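Memo to structure team: turn this sequence into structure tokens by end of day. - J.P.
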Amino acid sequence: MNIIIAIIITAGILTALFIWIFKTFSKKIETNVLSKIEDSFGRAAFEALAKNSDVFLNMAGDKFAGQSEANLRELTAKKELIDNTLLQMKTELEKVQNIIGSFENDRNEKFGALSNGLSAQLAQTEKLREITNKLNAALSDTRLRGIWGQRIADDILRLVGLEEGINYTQQKTMNGSAKRPDFTFILPGGKVINMDVKFPLNNFRLYIEDSNETTRQNYKSQFLKDARIMIKQVITREYINPDSNTLDCVIVFIPLEQAYSFIMENDTSFMDDALKNKVIVCSPWTLYALLSVIRHSIDIFNLERSADEILELMNVFYKQWGNFIGSMDKMGKKIEELQKEYESLLTTRKTQLEKPLQQINNLSKNKMPGRENLESNGEGQFPLGE
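Reply from structure team:
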């Protein structure tokens, strides 16, 4: 567009210049000649303008055609770029979709696993609740509670290594009394020590389950009273009776560690009063320690009691060992003598026996008829040493 305007302005300037020149010198030229010149110049200018216009149009067409092709190529390149970009975006979107799909599958799997886990946990919780209810109902029964306490004591005794009938007895009537302690431990020297299993649980259980502080304190006080009553019951049952070879004390076993600790924490004088009455109160842990000491003491006593017998047996063994060594020495000497006799037979006696045989052999070689034939046949010799 700028080229067209420049061409038009140039043509106009040239035309005006020629007109000015012509008018300047036209005063001396005739009117008809002047008009012809003007017409000729006008036609020439018009033809020049037309030619310039054609050239301009051709140039503009070529320019526009080149520009169009460039634009087309540019548009094609941009289209390819856009297509490639769209293809990459599609690929990336597919990857994102796959990732989202995998996340969704993983979420479904984990949600399913979590759901199954919660279901299993609920089932276990329900089962535990049922067991707890059954245990609570069982512990509410005094008889069942006593059986459970004895079972815990049995487990501790087996863990320590004590054997029933050898180291202890159960529910056996005492000598000279109708009382039957839960356990009677057999000690060295014919001594015994009795043990009762006590389980004062009712008020302790109510204390734990109740949410009212006032009633909880009442249950607490009653439970501590039950513990002291438990000590008095043992004292009055003749479990301590030196005439029946019992030790000067008795064991009371509380099979619930929490109840034992609760008594020790809330009644500081309980243990002192029990010891004053010659009662040893034990929990599962302290009973294990006490029975372990008893078992060790029994082993040491048995070892000391059998020490003299062991020494006597060792003396007998050493005596017999000396006799055995003496006999072995005698046998060794006899074997040496026998060896010497055997060597004598193989050397001296054998040599002395072979001498007359050699002489006989020599005589046979000199006097036997047909000696030459026998020698040629390799015969006529006495075998020596056979």
